[in-house]
Design brief:
CATH architecture of the largest domain: 2-Layer Sandwich
CATH class of the largest domain: Alpha Beta
Number of domains: 2
Helix content: 25-40%
CATH superfamily of the largest domain: ATPase, nucleotide binding domain
Shape: globular
Order of helices and strands: EEEEEHEEEHEHEEEHHHHHEHEH
Number of helices: 10
Radius of gyration: 20 Å
Number of strands: 14
Largest sheet: 5 strands, mixed
Length: 339
């Protein structure tokens, strides 16, 4: 039977929908959790956002996911048991069949496989929970509903706390043996900076926001000066968020500019390597840093791509996301729709 609820979209206009067609989507990032409730036409009818826990390990994260989802459900005016299911896009090694996530380096103390699907389902009245890689589901959403909907061969680069990626080959999301599209671990400098994966010279080691921050700390310890941490304190942040990086760059802070240049160079070289291998027609740039810096620094990335292309006469088109911050959660919800 249809239910009426007030949604936190379109100015709170009342909408009529069949609750059996509603589904939940959660984007679990290293910095924030976003939960959406969507209808069968992919319209957002409820949303909530929270910071990702920094301690407490997987149980604390599972509890935060459930709490955020319940807040979104409250906005939508439905209970968890009315959902067709909930999809979660998570970093780390995701095993949807087993319902587990492991080795999520950007989440607190998350190494061993943790039964996230079962734990979250228990907190959401037994609703079915599906898991997917956070960037893969976001790229899939852009493939189906967003910037890549008219493209056949696309790389998605999600630049945020870490650097993730996803591949669309011949119009379909490519998983390989389970780890296809791990763009952040493309090696762009042999023997270079140490990455969280244990390898050296990965794109993420230069462009992941937390690695950029660690690099600045190192430089300050060596005697270099920066305003970044003063900006962080002034704006009551306890990490260098994308907004703090933007302020540092626009104020011409030397370390901010240097760190940004290192990141752009690594991303550009990584994109070029992927294009050289697969002859991709387009690249979608997303993630917190990608969203914030696309307009101002996208051309610089294109320059570094061009410098490293085998066929510079046919560069890929660099595109912003169409779905923005909602892409990850929308893509996660599609896991339920496709099941």
């Amino acid at each position: 039977m249809p239910i009426r609820r007030r949604a936190e979209v379109d100015g709170g206009t009342p909408q009529l929908a069949d609750s059996r067609r509603l589904r939940g989507g959660i984007d679990l990032g290293g910095t924030k959790i976003e939960a959406l409730v969507l209808d069968d036409a992919h319209a957002v009818v409820g949303r909530a956002r929270a910071e990702t826990p920094r301690e407490g390990g997987p149980p604390a994260v599972a509890e935060a996911l459930a709490t955020t989802m319940h807040e979104a459900l409250g906005i939508a005016g439905v209970a968890a048991e009315h959902l067709a299911g909930v999809g979660v896009g998570s970093p780390g090694v995701v095993d949807d069949a087993a319902g587990t996530v492991a080795d999520a380096g950007n989440l607190p103390d998350w190494i061993a496989p943790y039964p996230l699907a079962a734990e979250l389902s228990q907190r959401l009245a037994g609703v079915r929970v599906r898991l997917g890689n956070d960037v893969s589901v976001a790229v899939d959403a852009e493939r189906l509903l967003g910037a890549a909907s008219d493209r056949r061969n696309v790389l998605g680069v999600w630049w945020g706390t870490g650097v993730g990626g996803g591949l669309v080959i011949n119009g379909e999301l490519f998983h390989g043996r389970g780890f296809g599209g791990e763009f952040g671990h493309t090696v762009v400098r042999r023997g270079g900076a140490l990455c969280g994966c244990g390898n050296r010279g990965c794109v993420e080691a230069y462009a992941g926001r937390k690695f950029m921050e660690a690099w600045v700390h190192t430089k300050v310890a060596e005697g270099h000066e920066t305003s970044l941490f003063k900006l962080m304190s002034r704006h009551e942040k306890d990490r260098l968020t994308s907004g703090i990086w933007e302020r540092g760059v626009t104020s011409y802070d030397p370390l901010a500019l240097h760190a940004m240049e290192r990141a752009l160079r690594a991303i550009g070289a990584g994109i070029a390597s992927a294009v050289n291998l697969l002859d991709l027609e387009a690249v979608v740039l997303g993630g917190g840093m990608g969203e914030r810096f696309f307009a101002t620094h996208g051309p610089r990335i294109e320059q570094y791509v061009h410098m490293n292309l085998f066929r510079p006469s046919a560069p890929p088109q660099l595109l912003p996301t169409k779905l923005g911050d909602d892409g990850g959660a929308i893509g996660a919800s599609l896991l339920v729709r496709a099941a």
